[in-house]
Write a structure and sequence with these properties.
This is Aminotransferase V. By secondary structure, the chain is α/β, with parallel strands linked by helices. About 40% of the residues lie in helices and about 15% in strands. The protein has 14 helices and 13 strands. It binds pyridoxal-5'-phosphate.
Length: about 425
């Protein structure tokens, strides 16, 4: 066997996307011991940086080792006791995932559903909360399967007025769309690095409000072998997972440094660097960058004569779902894009599999050259597949967006120069 040597790719699907090379470089840094002062300082720095990304003052802001799903499962299994009622508004595949994980945690799961390609009016969610009276309202922010982003600003108030906590899966949105954990009253939120955050999958940033942290800590059962006489007698049923037990993980990230797992050091470096790059760029600037390149991609696919799926007014900035034209073999076009251009785009799941392509503009790939290359390549493959895309129509429409939005060039170049100022943080 030879050394790993992946083909050159431009990952323009719904995530993962290409990691920022600076994140990959950070991952190549040497390992240190788990209780080396450098290690614990790096954990503390990561907590500080991620508070800015989440826009929160939450002390309990840290990482769970594992992909985004580990973060979701950690939050749900730690917040929910068997029999607790949870309400999940489902508007795509990942809402179903929250319901599934809640059910496996033994919760009494209630769902409301809206058609894929739409989001809920907050009033619909409030009605359901009034009816179900859940202990937890659990919602996906951006459901990558449909590209829709559920407005969150009212949900914290709705949950709290009915004595519920609010959990949000922000995997697909964080870093590329506005997210204000404290302002929106979010009690628990989790993400993954591989979308707008510019890293590889494998680390799940988490933030917990004081209310969520104390609900979880009430059930803290410190495991035998490290438990001391000072550990208070626990209340309630132990958290059903040991690895994803946020009560013990908080003690590992907190001043007690109580050993839990062996922190995934290279992923810690990656997560710290993802956050450092975003904080250096400025969260608002990063969101604008995703909005601008997303708008260029949207204009570009329309310029190719393609139809966009769903309620575009509620689309995430960073991914667009495009209807596969009649008579075109969607998988064959995706395969040809990969073979001929090294460009990857995605299809979707369930009812949308083979019906739409999903094209992302996120993280390191929320860039003008990535957008224009993808549109040029897609035009070529569409025409080869017999679809009459107007020659140059996609690139021209995207360029028109960039030309109209003169600040875009400034933004794009400021991203590259600002994030290169290594010593700012
Ligand atoms: C909204 C959302 N939630 C959860 C996940 C699961 O993430 P992971 O595959 O990193 O575990 C994804 C993955 O695409 C996602 O888009």
């Amino acid at each position: 066997m030879t050394q790993i040597h992946p083909p050159a790719r431009l990952l323009m699907g719904p995530g993962p996307v290409d990691a920022d090379p600076r994140v990959l470089r950070a991952m190549a840094a040497p390992l240190v011991g788990q209780f080396d002062p450098f290690m614990t300082d790096t954990m503390t720095e990561a907590m500080v940086l991620w508070r800015t990304v989440w826009d929160t003052a939450n002390e309990q802001t840290f990482l769970v080792d594992g992909t985004s799903r580990a973060g979701i499962e950690a939050a749900l299994v730690s917040l929910l006791e068997p029999g607790d009622r949870v309400l999940v508004p489902v508007f795509g595949r990942f809402g179903h995932l929250l319901a599934e994980i809640g059910a496996r945690a033994g919760a009494d799961v209630h769902t409301i559903e809206t058609e894929w390609g739409t989001v809920f009016d907050p009033g619909q969610i409030e009605d359901a909360v009034r009816q179900v009276r859940p202990r937890l309202l659990a919602v996906v922010h951006g459901d990558t399967s449909t590209t829709m982003a559920q407005p969150l600003a009212d949900l914290g108030r709705i949950a709290h007025e009915h004595d519920a906590l609010l959990y949000v899966d922000a995997t697909a949105t964080l870093g590329g769309n506005h997210f204000h954990a404290d302002e929106w009253g979010i009690d628990a939120a989790t993400a993954g690095l591989q979308k707008c955050l510019g890293g590889p999958s494998g680390s799940a940033p988490v933030t917990l409000s004081p209310a969520a942290a104390s609900a979880i800590n009430r059930r803290k059962h410190v495991e035998a072998g490290i438990r001391t006489a000072d550990d208070v007698a626990p209340h309630g049923v132990p958290i059903l997972s040991n690895y994803l037990d946020l009560a013990q993980i908080m003690d590992y990230w907190g001043p007690r440094r109580l050993n839990h797992h062996t922190e995934a050091t290279s992923m810690l470096y990656a997560a710290r660097e993802c956050a450092r790059l975003l904080v250096t760029e400025g969260m608002a600037t990063a969101v604008d960058r995703h909005a601008q390149h997303g708008a260029a991609m949207l204009a570009g696919v329309l310029g190719l004569g393609l139809e966009v799926f769903g309620d575009v007014g509620h689309k995430m900035h960073n991914v667009v779902a495009v209807r596969i034209p009649d008579g075109v073999d969607g998988d064959a076009v995706r395969g040809a894009l990969l073979d001929d251009f090294g460009v990857e785009i995605g299809t979707s799941f369930g009812p949308l599999h083979g019906v739409v392509w999903r094209i992302g503009t996120m993280g390191f790939n929320a860039r003008r050259d990535a957008v224009l290359t993808t549109l040029a390549a897609l035009e070529h493959e569409l025409r080869r597949a017999g679809f009459g895309a107007p020659p140059g129509g996609g690139v021209a429409a995207a360029l028109a967006v960039y030309d109209k939005a003169a600040p875009m060039d400034l933004l794009a170049s400021s991203y590259d120069t600002v994030v290169d100022e290594e010593a700012r943080l």
